[in-house]
Every structure is written in structure tokens, then in C-alpha cells.
Amino acid sequence: MATVLRIIRDVVPVDGDAHADAERAGAGRSDPVDVVLHGERIAAIQPRGTTPVGDAAHVIDGGGRLLLPGFVDAHAHADGRIFEPDVQLALLRQGVTTVIGGQDGVSYAPGDGAYASEYFAAINGPHPSYAGGGIRSLLDSYDGTTPLNQGVLVPAGTVRDLVCGRSTDAAGTAELDAMRALVADGLAEGALGLSTGLDYVPGVFASTDELARLAEPVAAAGAVYVSHMRGGYEANSAAGIDEIEAIARHSGVAVHVSHFHAEPAIVHVLMDGLAASGIEASFDAYPYTRGCSILAMPVLPAWLTVQPTSDVLAAITDPAGRRRLLDGWFPTIVDYPSLGPDWPSMLTLAHVAAPEYAWAHGLTIGTAAARLGTSPAEFALDVLAASRLEVNVVMAVRYARDDADLAEILAHPRALGGSDGIFIGAHPHPRARGSFARYLRLLVVERGAIGWADAAALVSTRAADRFRLGDRGRVRPGAVADLVLVDPARIADRATYDRPLELAEGIDDVLVAGVPVLAGGRLTGATPGRGIRRSNARGPAVPKEA
């Protein structure tokens, strides 16, 4: 039986093309339409009233809302949390129907998931069912178990840990061959590309040459190299892009820069420079100024955190080891690229696994330490030890971007929507529950920086093309019916740094594969989502225009 979306507003971005004719896709059709779905696909788009609806399984009245293709979160950490109803609701209320995980070089597969569940416990959390079997098994775990789709990248750090263990040495020839084989296997099993996290361990120890070699099978598969760049962003962005360019030139791989936050001019110049040199490139950026990560990354040295958790805990609790860190290491973190001498006031506790520190959620390291009458460095070590390193923090930055800067960055034709959402914590970063609604409110409704057609491209079409997600990202006959109804008068992000758990508003009806998964703002209980395997079709990537 068919499902009919009865659209009574005259705006339907039919193909989601950012450069479509404004009257056709941005200003809309001249006549209301019915969008007819059969099974998981759009069967027809035709004048309203010409579609018999008596036998339809569902008739959904658009009620003056806009119909957009389901949103694709190009960078998120829902890998193990997408099975939870509160996370599903948080994503669907933003219009997100597909999430791309395996980010920053660390996730469950390949391998048994132990490394990710330990080192990234405060970011991805544990997976409820995956215990090994590789990318294929991980993707299978999402089939029919969630209302959303989940794609994954092969995480280079996890691959390195499997082959090289906790070594900080350069990979040898045999190790490189073994890592390349794991990457190729993951891609053959449906992974969307390869991710790196070059400020995390063990990725920080991977050389440019190693990464370039790992990118060779990625290029051969027509997939994407996705990078959390090395050494911070901002003033160091050029060095990070230079490394990405070297990897692309060696391998021929298409590249994507994760959470690219810098001065708008820097972002534009560097991205346009890659394109001008013949490198296929894109980036994502969340519409907030602060970041979020595990506390261990900025406050502990990489040579220590690469060790097993038991060894790290021994080092930070042993009096002599702790003194060495306090005297020799902590004075150096003022030079961490995004922080500085005021680092205790810039790190807000978002998730602390130790229940005895639950009172500290939402407080800065400095404020929490002062309440206990201890130094910020001592407090940071204490809370990490008590939590077995499972702590994440919202990170204020030296170079905060205002809304005008964010709008300029996100208006770039190679920008993709990516929340970098982390769903673990009592006081998380608001980007997990607000990013996509904020894109629409800030960029379209309030600032007019882009129109609705460009918005559809930003939050859906470009990512669907870039990561080869099949027939998604467009509202047209034959496309998979991942669809979102947006009320432009109500669309708003409600999550803030003070109240980060508030859900977005203005999106109450969402379909995945033609099945209503959000109706009236509530979960329907349907689970048509699947693990998204990379499509072999080589469709268009991001626009070529600067």
C-alpha cells in the first residue's frame, strides 16, 4: 500500500541540488503536490488531488511545511548509542535520518571492539551487541534494529592498534601490508572510507607516509579519506591541509576534513586550494564555537595514554609518577593549540563515569577543583583515576567564532553538515541535539546566508553523494524515501551550553525508507534503519564551483 505525503505548501526541493534554479527548488513549485511512496522509494511527485488516497497506508498532510531529503550527519559519535530511544529522538527531531560513524580513527571494527570501548569510552561508549567480525558484522548490527541508518568508516587508529599494538614506532613493511589489508577488507564489506584522528592515540604516531599508504586501497575503492587533522586547527590549519594534500597526491584519494573550524578566510582559501590543485575535497563544521573531547587528550601526554588503561592509572596514581606529570607535563599544556594558560576555566565536565564526582557535571575544572581546595591539575588526575579515564569535557577555545563567521564557513559549497555529536554525559555539548536545527535556523531563517535548496544540499545531498549512500539525498522519483517535513516558522535548536539536553523543535514528522519513524514529534517504534553500505555507483561529489 502506498504512503502519500500531501504537500500543501509550494516549496519542494525536488533534487536537493545546491545550485538548482531558485524558482524551481528554492522558491518552490507553483502548485501543491502529492509525493507518493511505494515501499522504500518515492514513486511519483504529481499535482495535488490527482492521487487516489483511499487505499493509502498513510496520508501525511504537509500542513504548510517544507519537504526535504533526510539529513545526513557526516560526523557523529552515535556508533554505540543509536540503539537508545533518547538518542534516536534527539537525532530525528533534528531531521537526521543517516549517521556516519567510525570517526576520528577509533571505533569498534575491525577487531573485537575492546580498544574503542576502552579508549573512546567517553565518546562512543560500548556497543550493545558487536563483539567482533569486522565491518560487515558491525553494519549488520544496525539492520532493522534502529529507526535511523548508520554508516561507518574504517578507523585507522583501531587498525594500527590491531597490527602494531601500543607501539609508538613507525610501522614496518609487514605491518603496513597488514594494515592495508584490513582497510581493503573493511571497504569491501561496505565501509564508506577511512578515518583518522591525528590528535588521538595511536593516530598521533602514524606518519604521513603510513597514512598515504593506507589511503591507497581507499582511492582504489572510490571511497573517502576523512581526517581529524594533526596538531589542532586554527593557525595550524595550513600544516594539516598540507599533510592531507600529500596523502591525496600520493594515493589519488578524495579527502574530507572533519570539524574544520578556523577563520572563514582560512577555510575557504585552503579548501579552494585543494580543489584548484585537482584534489576532490570537502569538509564538515558544526555550528558552535566550543569543542568536546575526552579529558585525557589535552591533559595527558600521548606517550602515556597509548598504554593500556591499567598502566595509565598506575602512572597517575603513583606518587612519583604523578609528581613527574605535575612538574614536567602540566606546565606544557598551556601550549595546547586550542587552550592556553586559562585551561582550567576552559574545560567543562560533560561526562564523569565515577559516581562520586557526579556533582561536578557542568562545572569547569577550575571551579570543581576550587570546591575541593585542590589544584586544577591534581583534580584532573583525580577525576581521571576515579573514572578509569572515562571523562569527556566541553572545550572553550581561544578563537571563538561568532554567528557571522559560522555562516560564512557553512555557506561554502564544499561544506557538509556534521554535528560531531557525543551522546554520553549528564551535561554534554549541545551540538548533539541542536546542530541540524541550528543550521536551518541560523543560516536560512535568521541570517539568510543560504536558501532552502542550499540548505538541503548542506544537510543532505552533498554527504549522500560524497559518501556514496545510494539513492538518498534528493526528493525525486526513484529515490529512497528518507524524508523530513520542516516547519520554517518553528525550526529551532533548544539545546544550549547551560541546558544541553533540550530537543530541537520544528520537525515532527520523519520517514526512513518510506516508514514513519517520527510522528507528531514522537518515536513511532518502527525500526526500518539499516547499516548503510557504500554504493558502487560513482555519482557526482560536492560541487566543483568555488
Automatic annotation (TrEMBL):
Query: What residue stretches are annotated with the Amidohydrolase domain?
Result: 59-517
Name used for this protein in its record? Amidohydrolase family protein
